[in-house]
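Please go through this protein, sequence plus structure tokens, and consider how the sequence yields the tokens. Keep your notes short.
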Amino acid sequence: MPEKEQRPNISAEVIAYREFFAKEGDWEAFQEIVRLREELEPLDGWKRRKELARAEIEALDPDIFTKLFEKFAPYTDTLPPGHGRGHMQRDAINVVLIMQDEEIAKADPVELFVGAVGGVFHDIGNSVVERYDEPFRYSGHAEAGAYLIGKIGKGLIPPNLLSLVQLSIAGHTHYTKEFSVEKEGRAVLKKPYQDEVIDGNRLGMWIPRWTDRLDTNGPTLAVRHIITKAEPTVDFSGGKFQDVWEDPEDDFRHQFSPVVRTSEARAKLPAPKNTTDVLEHLLMFSDSNYNPNLPYPKYDTPYYRWHLMTPLVSWQRQFVLATLAEPPAFTQEEVSKHIGDFLKLCKTLEPGEKIDEKVELLRSKFDLLDEDARRRWANGFKTLSTVYTHWYGREDELLREQTKVESPGLYAVIESLRKVGINSLFGFMP
């Protein structure tokens, strides 16, 4: 590790890994994941490692998640707004909700444990690499997270389970098209993961994606995505990385245009005008859950799709429609109040490093919008406050149900995680 630079509120360990990934670690971690993929991506390789891991399930510490949270606390505390500690806590809640699906709960306990750990920790790599640097790094946040869990989780997660967890985290981004990264004269082609579920094998690759999707739909996504748009970010949308505007203020005005265009209309425009704005991005996520031509929902169970996902999609659409609608005749004070209420919600949902800075930047940038746009967003935020209350009540109700997992060893682990989830939910109280 390079010499550690001391900075306030960031542990020396995290600083060392940030410096590591900024230099030789970018390539080193990528190569480790390449080797892991060569070994475990083929179905026979996954099955062999799973058989070795089977005995490890029965010896699991019931409090393993609590101990992992403690060990990763320095990293969790420095996660960026939009992918921060709040997102991880909701991922833990979402893992528990998925385990209440009777169809999933009957699956192989190795697959369930691998998916559960991957579901909770899939975004931990954001603590050491920039989330939106994916086009410019060999190791994006997924590869960095897989590398971190392999180093820091050693000793807590048994070795065979750990290697499967690493692959589930590395593949959670679910890129469906290959793309190249060229850096310092070296080019690599990053390819989609082999993830087809065959006879229950590789289910552990999909649980982190299910977990993530439950927080990328509904009122939580509206908050998270808007936080990330305080400054220009390179999103992956429509099968490619999107362009940003040269002027950050122009980028903000574009992102917060209260309009929704068809994909055909956007395709006729030059970059960056063809980039999806905030409302278009939210609709794209909600639509992707029901599009049979897309791979994201292809293994969704009826419980997941209709019981867990559909209410989130409905609430997300309510927010979008309210923002697009002709707004009420709000006074300036009412507009400021609804925007202020939204900014408070940002702090509730995404506590952590730099959230105050992001919120104040958002507050100032909403002043860039014209009067009509500000009123429309105020109307959307008023609706968002209502649907957020519905979301909270539903999460609270669902968390009261015990897990349906049948494996005794894993049941104790997930029940322990459920108690963590109940405590975490209090922090999101409206």
About this structure: Confidence is low (pLDDT under 50) at residues 1-8. Residues 219-399 form one domain. The longest helix spans residues 371-399. Residues 95 and 300 are 14 Å apart (CA to CA).
